[in-house]
Design goal:
Oligomer: single chain
Mean pLDDT: 96
Largest sheet: 7 strands, parallel
CATH superfamily: NAD(P)-binding Rossmann-like Domain
Structural class: alpha/beta
Number of strands: 7
Low-confidence stretches: none
Bound molecules: nicotinamide-adenine-dinucleotide
Strand order of the largest sheet: 3-2-1-4-5-6-7
Shape: globular
Distance between the termini: 36 Å
Length: 259
């Protein structure tokens, strides 16, 4: 299906050098949007931007930097406005997953998780909303939560807290920004096979595929397709919602007899 309202719109996607963020940027470019791809890994983001520009010339640019850092966020938005002239969509996708036993979790690890997952999303959404209000043409903000912001998982307390908080941030922003025709929705991906998760766990796809009611693991495109819909005109009346894209894990984890 081809959605309307995507072509020629300008988007920022953070953490877009690989995984879910890259899949979102790729779909946006394919649909005719202009995209600023941010990543902390300079080579990675430059490589994927060159690749996407081969497919669709001058469709995207890279912005290298830490998406949790507020001065960097402001520079990224300024750069986007200078380069493409407006800002319509923002997807603060970059997030850090730090595993650790609650009893041993350090203040340093806690700060790292909160800084990127919450501070980064909060201040990018804030700056973007200011620009969207000035433009008076509405806008879209899609936050990236997680299935473990809905359902507890071992050794992910701090991460899960930030992901649950993003959902509430989305509800609050939707309430405040709806009057400007800006929608704010939150996606909660389930276990999704990316370059990172493949490294984290041997047979990631087999392990999570068994636990999901639909017997498969998520693909970055599953999340990207949902995001594209939420950015489109067709989704203009969906606001403040949490959309799990998780194969059913948060609805019905498997029962003993299923395993
Ligand atoms: N993959 C999953 O199974 C899964 C499940 C639920 C939620 N999520 C969430 O979805 C989002 C994307 O997940 P993913 O697995 O594709 O990501 P990932 O960990 O693979 O990272 C994607 C990119 O983000 C970049 N990045 C890391 N720190 C950054 C920073 N400070 N600033 C800018 N870029 C940075 C990395 O260099 C990488 O290229 C995250 O917010 C994650 O929490 C992922």
């Amino acid at each position: 299906m081809q959605y309307s309202g995507i072509k020629d719109k300008v988007a920022i996607v953070t953490g877009a050098g690989e995984g879910i963020g890259y899949a979102i940027a790729g779909l946006l470019v394919k649909a005719g949007a202009k995209v600023v791809l941010n990543d902390i890994d300079k080579n990675r983001v430059n490589t994927v931007v060159a690749h996407l520009n081969e497919q669709s010339p001058a469709s995207c640019v890279s912005f290298h930097g830490d998406a949790g850092d507020v001065p960097t966020i402001n520079k990224m938005v300024d750069f986007t406005l200078d380069h493409f002239g407006s800002l319509d969509f923002v997807i603060p996708n970059a997030g850090i997953t730090l595993f650790g036993d609650f009893l041993e979790f350090t203040p340093d690890s806690f700060q790292k998780v909160v800084r990127l997952n919450l501070q980064g999303a909060f201040f990018l959404a804030q700056r973007a909303a200011k620009e969207m209000i000035k433009q008076s043409t509405g806008g879209r903000i899609v936050l990236m939560s997680s299935q473990v912001g809905i359902r507890a998982y071992h050794n992910l307390t701090a991460y899960g807290m930030t992901k649950a908080a993003l959902q509430f941030m989305g509800q609050n922003l939707a309430y405040g920004l709806g009057q400007y025709q800006i929608t704010v929705n939150t996606i909660a991906p389930g276990a999704t096979l990316t370059e990172r998760t493949a490294k984290e766990q041997p047979d990631y796809a087999g392990f999570w595929g068994r636990l999901n009611p639909n017997n498969r693991v998520g693909k970055p495109e599953d999340i990207a397709n949902t995001c594209l819909f939420l950015l489109s005109d067709e989704a203009s009346h969906i606001n403040g919602q949490l959309i799990p894209v998780d194969g059913g894990w948060t609805t019905a984890g498997k029962y003993p007899e299923d395993l």
